[in-house]
Amino acid sequence: MKTIIEPFKIKSVEQIYFTNKSQRIEIIKKAHYNPFLIKADDVIIDLLTDSGTSAMSSAQWAGIMIGDESYAGSNSFFRFEKTVSEITGMPIVIPTHQGRASEKILFSIIGGKGKYIISNTLFDTTRANVEASGAEGVDILCAEGKIPSMIAPFKGNIDTNALEKFIKEKGAENIPLCIITVTNNSGGGQPVSMQNIKESSIICKKYGIPMFIDACRFAENCYFIKKREKGYENISVREIAKEMFSYADGSTMSAKKDAFANIGGFITLKNEELATKCRNLLIITEGFPTYGGLAGRDLEAIAIGLNEVLDENYLQYRIRSTEYLSEKLVAAGVPVMQPSGGHAVYIDAKAMLPHITVDNYPGQSLVAALYIEGGIRGVEIGSLMFGKYDKNGKLIPAMMELVRLAIPRRVYTQSHIDYVAEVIIEVSKNREKIKGLEITYEAEALRHFTAKLKEVSS
Question: Which neighbouring-strand residues pair with 45?
């Protein structure tokens, strides 16, 4: 059959509250043109993030009921540990309350002034935790990944030639870690090939640099490998995952993505010395090593979700539903990152709104316009999120100006996605009317979460 149906049935629903356009104009003004400051009840379709917003399965809810809440040595932890270890092949599994907690622990230990953490592209919280340690985060994305309209199978790859050149220039002793983000969230949700991961591992081993995987969307990345990389078409996603992790020395994960959980994360390691340091810091900041800031019920939900996400019928539906939205937008002439990623569609705001300069944040301007037109909440992945200032206070813009529409797992139906497409296309037709924005307040770190903006004067 040509139609790919949802591989699940709906057993529980949540009400959507509807607003009209005039109401939304006032709401976005009161929220200072920042979608993070809008109340959830005022959002019709929420595509702000796919993190912690997925629908859990009946099996996960059942698992919650048998969660063992023992402070130490919980049975739920040992089931969680066994599942994570079987999928990743990593002998050491440390639970945390979410991905950024894993990053905070890791980079507090290995980071520091004068050090560099290199990646295909660091996401916002990863970069923030790197920089909080005093280290510098460096993105070494492949050339094709920097061109939104260019079609290539693995635009999330790290540039391996540039990787080795950077190591030689800065010295391996100053680079405590290389971390490969799969899929590459800040780079348009683009996948990373197995060959690229393998080559990166070889380079890192050559210079004695540990290589980690940021595994938030590992299953989606593995499905892309199965579909796009020669030699993997007849290999199961579970086997592909095991090979992918075999090239790494460790991983961090937010279980709020590919594990379908509403909270949780973990660190996996092969090095016992580093694990001891991580556990010591975990006890101070998160909790005992067999719960790590999580309830036993959450550990159960994550373990079950990690197995569910490897179902290839689900992954086929997941990737195809994202492609479906992307294809509708491309057909209507809306500039988007191509090919579509696994968890989100990324609109190229710079191409869509050429009349808005980067210092007036075209991505954030488009986010506001989408909310006003149809109550859709997306997020800017551009110069508001990643821009910095030079010594004279001039904006150093991000590599790309994107708007991410992250699709929660097992939440929205095809009619919801059809509605999203209609709203975006309508906004695109009236793109010249969209005004730029300027910042009136910003925090020192992760400013996009709490920034306040206003429309620029005409």
Answer: 376
Distance CA 116, CA 2 (A): 48
Domain 58-308 has CATH 3.40.640.10: yes
The answer to whether 163 and 197 are in contact (CB under 8 A) is no
pLDDT band at 4 (very low <50, low <70, confident <90, very high): confident
| Domain 21-50+311-455 fold | Aspartate Aminotransferase, domain 1 (3.90.1150)
Alpha-helix residue ranges (DSSP H) falling in 254-331 = 272-285, 296-308, 312-331
Half-sphere exposure for 413 (CA within 13 Å, toward CB) = 6
- Residues 436 and 357: beta-carbon distance below 8 Å: yes
Instruction: Give pLDDT tens digits for 51-100.
Output: 999 999 999 999 999 999 999 999 999 999 999 999 999 999 999 999 99
pTM score, whole prediction? 0.95
What residue ranges do the domains of the chain occupy?
21-50+311-455, 58-308
Across 255-318, where does the E strand assignment appear? Answer: 265-269
Q: Coil, strand or helix: which one is 258?
A: coil
Element (H, E) at 389: strand 388-389
